Amino acid sequence: MERAPMSEPRLSETDRQWIRWGEQNPYYGVLIGYESSHIEGNQKAKFFETGEGYIAEVISIATTLYPELEPRRGAAIDFGSGVGRLLRPLAARFAAAYGVDISPAMHKIAEENLKEVGQVRLVMSPDEIPPASCAFANSFIVLQHIRRREGMALIRSLLERLEVGGVFALQFLVRDENPIRPALNALRYRFPPLQWAYNLVRGRPVHEPVTEMNVYDQSAVEDLARSLGFASLNALLPTNHGGHHGVTLFGQRVEIPAALGTPAYRGGVGGVRPHTGGDVGPS
Ligand SMILES: C[S@@+](CC[C@H](N)C(=O)[O-])C[C@H]1O[C@@H](n2cnc3c(N)ncnc32)[C@H](O)[C@@H]1O
To answer: The whole model's pTM is what?
Structure first.
């Protein structure tokens, strides 16, 4: 396993919160119910089983939708890889894997959790991965914690890492069923005393970091993907986490639009025929 030298990225407000999560309560930051900076034995096995289950389902859907996807031959990216819960099963299925995470403390734990797994590289930004070089990009319960403008820029960068034939499976929130919650949350995210009160009411440590829940515009994500040469978009696996509704959007790169770049970027353009069946909305 290789860890890239940590660059000094410009940090957003949510980046700073996630760096604190990594330092203060990394496993709980990933999944409620794992309140510890270290887990082992059965608890650890159960934690990683949840990741194996999700990745098995996602890869099974991806290889059904896009039969050209050959996991064993390519590199996979897990965006927001945390302590390695999804990166480990991805690394087991692909020839190589990148874990992208903004939190150095999460990387440190992931390194420990993946030390038996070969060909894994941990980076802080998708920009550190060569363009058009990867076969698969995954993200689950990450984009929701990033404000939409920054999240859209990260999605663009992530999709640009995929080669022709490459497939993405990105989960993000599309709707909050409580119509007033987004406005109240926006206040809480920007005014720390409200967050401290919120933490106290829930019996959590008063200075526990914020976990923002941000909704994306699905059609804007789809338009962005199409503009980068992706087709056969399918929104599947609907999620409902406490009234926050999400989907996992799948798509395959069929071309690298000429406007996008240099021959190096566009190397290996063979062209993949889009799948029939068209784009499907959330089921
Ligand atoms: C809820 S955890 C999910 C981790 C992992 N996807 C999983 O399901 O096990 C969210 C992760 O996203 C990371 N993250 C948040 N903002 C990020 C950003 N801008 N770039 C990369 N990673 C980010 C956090 O540090 C954290 O590890």
So the answer is: 0.91
